[in-house]
Amino acid sequence: MKALIAIDSFKGCLTSAQAGNAALRAFPDGCAEIIPVSDGGEGFSTILTGCLGGTFRTVSCHDPLGRIISAKYGVAGRTAVIETAAASGLGLLRRNELNPVLTSSYGTGELMLDALEHGAEEIWLGLGGSATCDGGIGLLQALGYRFRTDEAKSGSSLVNIQEIDSSCRCKALDSCKITGFYDVSVPFCGPGGAARMFAPQKGASPAMVEMLDEWMSRLCETYVEFSEMDVMNIPGSGAAGGIGGALGGVLGATMAQGIHKVLDIAGFGQKLKSCDLVITGEGRADIQTLRGKVPVGVLEYSRRHRAPGKSPKVILIAGRLSDKEQLLEAGFDAVLQVTPEDTPLPVALAPATAEANITRTIKEYQANL
Fold first, then answer.
1. Has residue 150 got a pLDDT over 50?
2. In this structure, what CATH number is given to the domain that contains residue 69?
3. pLDDT digits (tens, 9 = 90+) for 274-292
4. DSSP category for residue 152
5. Separation CA 329–CA 26 (nearest Å)
6. Do 22 and 51 share a structural domain?
7. Residue 332: which residues within 8 A CB-CB, separation 6 or more?
8. For the chain, how big is the Rg over CA atoms in Å?
9. Final residue of a structural domain among 192, 226, 259
10. Contact, 132 vs 100, CB < 8 A?
11. What are phi and psi of 139, to 5 degrees?
């Protein structure tokens, strides 16, 4: 049996590489290969820059709360590979600092500006893992856009914005192609939009969620007036706290699924032709997984690019699992929870325990084939 391993990180526990290596240990030498993956969130820049043989540039910028930090992005020829997680990510804040009313995407805009000032002709921006829900306002401000009632560079400014002034925007934007690579495709605002779906995990209370969604709705109208585009329904417009909407609606960026780009660059399709089993996964798998996260992206890509007459099994592993029936209906051949139900959370999150659980689960799966 030949296997391809394409597992996302188990957030707060294992990196994608650690999870992949744990799966690799379940196979004899030479019978499995790890494909590094990201859906646009953490790891997007590192993986793509590495695959392209690029280098990294480290710059000074602002974190989500406006503090000066150092962040890096990739450079491959005239292409800059940036991820929102680098300057605007959840991982930059302590738990008690999470507050999407106060956080800003300004630092991500600073990384883009640096790339433009150093001659980037194309920018790939990975959208995922952000601590923000500012609709991309901070990012646009860093690129020179101004807003009537231009106050804080954060979600709290959304309520006052009525008009966009692009007269001072960075002129290098005119000759740069921008592509936003989103992790999950959610609308800009509304019941399934950025604030309601993801602001709670960024520290928002129920009252904050209502307020942010109202602000995002008003901002959407402003973006529509500026661009004459249906910003609400641009694919990935709600990704990274609405940065997708700013990219597609204001900057005229192309939008695409991040996992598909990573798999393309990593040569997953070619390697798929000689494999019998694909193993994908993430820390927690549930109905949200089907919105375009790494596992369903790997599943779709595997079905689309399989060789004629060949149909490798695609299995999903997760630290915690719910909505199993829906995941199986989506097309996975098996859906496996690696963590025993009676395991206390602190124990389950210990890297050594999680790695051992992944290896054991995959060995058991092979034994039952």
1. no
2. 3.90.1510.10
3. 999 999 999 999 998 888 7
4. -
5. 26
6. no
7. 295, 299, 314, 315, 316
8. 20
9. 259
10. yes
11. -60, -45
